[in-house]
């Protein structure tokens, strides 16, 4: 249970090796969370990482197999009881050039980045509604706020996810469960290795800090950094002719 | 679904609310318990999540209000939802008073048992559970069981925070009084040591004692207090002018109503320091006769006072350290004072012997209670530090006030938890009785 000062107890991270996801979990544990489930592909059998003083469980989870997602949520509940924070942090970035050449790969990436989130999100929501509390932290992206020519396969999946998350949050309104949508800009990390930095980029740690602050204040949408909110207020209304010439 | 919070107005969760009219209806609700379980609720005066049950059923007991008094023995049989306020209004004019009253009259009998509440007379009369002769409890199977102090389940229920079943009735001994007034002595102390010394030396001369501490006073004045001590007034104690009327007249009421909304941060170091200064200076040493209401329940004077903390609510931190561990009390008071922690009413009480309640809070020692706005930066860390100090000193945190403690800390503070769990598991093997507090503390 989340306590009076916003400290949570049990956390489920889907995409258990995600840098941003782990950075969020580490901070939640530092603030007092005691039970963690890390769900990822071929997770079981390995040694769970040490995260502060929390008890850490591993769970097998394949984002591309929605038929298994219900069991994953049930298994997590069996391990730690009520889920206070659920963080679906899995995803693939890929390059637009590769997707242009390989539409099958593009469809598979979208199935994970959007479809996988829809299915796990709905299953998590069912549980959170039943227990009457808990927050789903959805890692969206500014790439989905207005989709760019430079990465429209990835961007369109994020656009779908962002819309799904907002709709889910509205559907859960009044149930005690909540959805928090996180919109980072360019995040420096494993996922973006070798790419040139974009303006207003952030580190996984900075994204995690913003998520923690958002959880504490019951925010519905968190931009990282906050300045992006302002920037995208302008970007959203830029004429199409200019927008399509954005270099990246 | 209705969103519920405790008195501190933090961490709301939704539940289905039912308001049974009889103990039979309670039993029926328990028999048809939903998967998320059943929690009993009275007037919602626990500060945290003790009477909440996210996604489950909450049984509001406030319609169970029947009572009777045996005028020869002072034994009262009261339904669990009866408030001490209503009970006093009925008892006082008949010359009887409740054996124990907490700082508000607006608690139910069931809540008083479940939290094993204490009052200003703890050093002589112990807590509420000590005055009980029997209890009626609706257990997990939906059967009504009458328990006496000879039963283990009785002492798992007294202080058991409603997790052994739904209390539907209690029988307890009341005390005879001649008047509805209290003979009060007020004294001011210079600092914390002076406060502790004075209470240790002279507490036993009074049935009721409490100290209000000015937490914002620093340096040489750190821990300066106003000691308020008293006894039920006899007819001779009443001032000459007041002797003509009914000496047992009891007409307490809230005179002020807190505004429905207050800004976050209304209570800040500046306003609270001013209040504390005024309170300290106003409390002139001396003796006088006062009504039961103002003496026992000064906070009931302002209805809905919990709203002045703003929308973010507040936490109450009440801990106990055993005698001999005064250093821990000093350490916490000096840290609070150094950190400029805003606490509206900080109260220190010297406890006497506790009850055999396994999760009962009071035990011989010192207890300090303070209110802090929940939005304060760094509060979680500060209170966790205090938790560690208190646990190391062999002390504990009061569950009826708690809204933020961690499960491991609680287990360290309540050495009889395993014993309690064993009895609870026998009475409720499937975990029918669940509250948010129980989930948070892994009870």
UniProtKB/TrEMBL annotation, chain A:
<feature type="domain" description="Ketoreductase">
    <location>
        <begin position="9"/>
        <end position="190"/>
    </location>
</feature>
<dbReference type="Pfam" id="PF00106">
    <property type="entry name" value="adh_short"/>
</dbReference>
<dbReference type="InterPro" id="IPR020904">
    <property type="entry name" value="Sc_DH/Rdtase_CS"/>
</dbReference>
<dbReference type="InterPro" id="IPR036291">
    <property type="entry name" value="NAD(P)-bd_dom_sf"/>
</dbReference>
<dbReference type="GO" id="GO:0016491">
    <property type="term" value="F:oxidoreductase activity"/>
</dbReference>
<dbReference type="InterPro" id="IPR057326">
    <property type="entry name" value="KR_dom"/>
</dbReference>
<dbReference type="InterPro" id="IPR002347">
    <property type="entry name" value="SDR_fam"/>
</dbReference>
<protein>
    <submittedName>
        <fullName>Short-chain dehydrogenase</fullName>
    </submittedName>
</protein>
<keyword id="KW-0560">Oxidoreductase</keyword>
<comment type="similarity">
    <text>Belongs to the short-chain dehydrogenases/reductases (SDR) family.</text>
</comment>
Automatic annotation (TrEMBL), chain B:
<dbReference type="GO" id="GO:0003885">
    <property type="term" value="F:D-arabinono-1,4-lactone oxidase activity"/>
</dbReference>
<dbReference type="InterPro" id="IPR036318">
    <property type="entry name" value="FAD-bd_PCMH-like_sf"/>
</dbReference>
<dbReference type="GO" id="GO:0016020">
    <property type="term" value="C:membrane"/>
</dbReference>
<dbReference type="InterPro" id="IPR010031">
    <property type="entry name" value="FAD_lactone_oxidase-like"/>
</dbReference>
<dbReference type="InterPro" id="IPR016171">
    <property type="entry name" value="Vanillyl_alc_oxidase_C-sub2"/>
</dbReference>
<dbReference type="InterPro" id="IPR007173">
    <property type="entry name" value="ALO_C"/>
</dbReference>
<dbReference type="InterPro" id="IPR016169">
    <property type="entry name" value="FAD-bd_PCMH_sub2"/>
</dbReference>
<feature type="domain" description="FAD-binding PCMH-type">
    <location>
        <begin position="10"/>
        <end position="177"/>
    </location>
</feature>
<dbReference type="GO" id="GO:0071949">
    <property type="term" value="F:FAD binding"/>
</dbReference>
<keyword id="KW-0560">Oxidoreductase</keyword>
<protein>
    <submittedName>
        <fullName>Oxidoreductase</fullName>
    </submittedName>
</protein>
<dbReference type="InterPro" id="IPR006094">
    <property type="entry name" value="Oxid_FAD_bind_N"/>
</dbReference>
<dbReference type="InterPro" id="IPR016167">
    <property type="entry name" value="FAD-bd_PCMH_sub1"/>
</dbReference>
<dbReference type="InterPro" id="IPR016166">
    <property type="entry name" value="FAD-bd_PCMH"/>
</dbReference>
<dbReference type="Pfam" id="PF04030">
    <property type="entry name" value="ALO"/>
</dbReference>
<dbReference type="Pfam" id="PF01565">
    <property type="entry name" value="FAD_binding_4"/>
</dbReference>
């Amino acid at each position: 249970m989340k306590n009076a000062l916003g400290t949570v107890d049990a956390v489920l991270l889907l995409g258990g090796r995600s840098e941003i996801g782990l950075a969020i979990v580490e901070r939640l544990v530092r603030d007092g969370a005691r039970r963690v489930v890390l769900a990822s592909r071929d997770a079981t059998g390995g040694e769970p990482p040490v995260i502060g003083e929390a008890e850490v469980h591993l769970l097998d989870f394949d984002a591309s197999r929605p038929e298994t997602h219900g069991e994953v949520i049930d298994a997590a509940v069996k391990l730690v009881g009520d889920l206070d924070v659920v963080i679906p942090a899995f995803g693939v970035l890929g390059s637009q050039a590769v997707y242009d050449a390989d539409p099958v790969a593009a469809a598979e990436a979208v199935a994970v980045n959007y479809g996988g989130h829809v299915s796990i999100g709905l299953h998590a929501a069912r549980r959170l509604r039943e227990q009457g509390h808990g927050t789903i932290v959805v890692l969206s992206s500014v790439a989905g706020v207005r989709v760019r020519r430079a990465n429209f396969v990835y961007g369109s999946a994020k656009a779908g996810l962002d819309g799904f998350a907002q709709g889910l949050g509205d559907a859960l309104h009044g149930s005690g469960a909540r959805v928090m949508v996180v919109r980072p800009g360019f995040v420096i990390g494993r996922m973006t290795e070798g790419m040139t930095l974009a303006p207003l980029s952030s580190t996984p740690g900075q994204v995690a800090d913003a998520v923690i602050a958002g959880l504490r204040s019951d925010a519905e949408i968190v931009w990282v950094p906050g300045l992006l909110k302002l920037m995208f207020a302008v970007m959203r209304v830029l004429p199409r002719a200019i927008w399509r010439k954005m270099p990246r | 679904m209705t969103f519920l919070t405790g008195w501190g107005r933090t961490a709301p969760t939704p539940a289905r609310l039912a308001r049974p009219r009889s103990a039979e209806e309670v039993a029926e609700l328990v028999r048809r318990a939903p998967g998320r379980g059943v929690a009993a609720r009275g007037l919602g005066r626990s500060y945290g999540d003790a009477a909440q049950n996210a996604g489950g059923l909450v049984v509001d007991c406030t319609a169970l209000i029947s009572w009777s008094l045996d005028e020869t023995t002072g034994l009262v049989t009261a339904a669990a939802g009866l408030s001490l306020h209503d009970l006093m209004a009925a008892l006082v004019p008949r010359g009887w008073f409740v054996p124990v009253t907490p700082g508000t009259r607006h608690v139910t009998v069931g809540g008083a048992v479940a939290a094993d509440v204490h009052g200003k007379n703890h050093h002589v009369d112990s807590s509420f559970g000590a005055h009980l002769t029997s209890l009626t409890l609706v257990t997990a199977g939906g059967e009504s069981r009458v328990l006496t102090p000879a039963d283990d389940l009785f002492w798992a229920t007294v202080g058991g925070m409603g997790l052994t079943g739904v209390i539907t009735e209690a029988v307890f001994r009341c005390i005879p009084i001649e008047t509805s007034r209290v003979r009060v002595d007020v004294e001011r102390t210079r600092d914390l040591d002076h406060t502790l010394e004075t209470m240790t030396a002279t507490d036993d001369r009074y049935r009721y004692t409490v100290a209000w501490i000015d937490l914002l006073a620093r340096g040489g004045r750190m821990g300066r207090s106003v000691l308020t001590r008293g006894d039920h007034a006899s007819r001779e104690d009443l001032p000459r002018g007041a002797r003509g009327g009914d000496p047992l007249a009891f007409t307490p009421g809230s005179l002020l109503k807190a505004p429905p909304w207050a800004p976050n941060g209304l209570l800040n170091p500046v306003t609270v320091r001013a209040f504390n200064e005024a309170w300290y200076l106003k409390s002139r040493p001396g003796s006088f006769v006062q009504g039961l209401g103002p003496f026992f329940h000064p906070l009931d004077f302002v209805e809905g006072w919990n709203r002045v903390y703003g929308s973010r609510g507040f936490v109450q931190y009440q801990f106990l350290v055993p005698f001999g561990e005064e250093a821990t009390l000093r350490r916490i008071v000096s840290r609070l004072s150094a950190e400029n922690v805003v606490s509206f009413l900080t109260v220190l009480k010297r406890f006497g012997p506790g009850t055999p309640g396994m999760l009962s809070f009071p035990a011989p020692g010192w207890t300090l209670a303070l209110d802090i706005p929940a939005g304060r930066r760094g509060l979680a860390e500060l209170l966790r530090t205090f938790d560690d100090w208190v646990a190391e000193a062999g002390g504990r945190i009061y569950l009826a006030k708690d809204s933020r403690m961690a499960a491991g800390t609680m287990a360290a503070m309540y050495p009889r938890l395993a014993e309690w769990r064993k009895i609870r598991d026998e009475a409720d093997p499937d975990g029918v009785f669940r509250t948010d507090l129980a989930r948070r503390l892994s009870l």
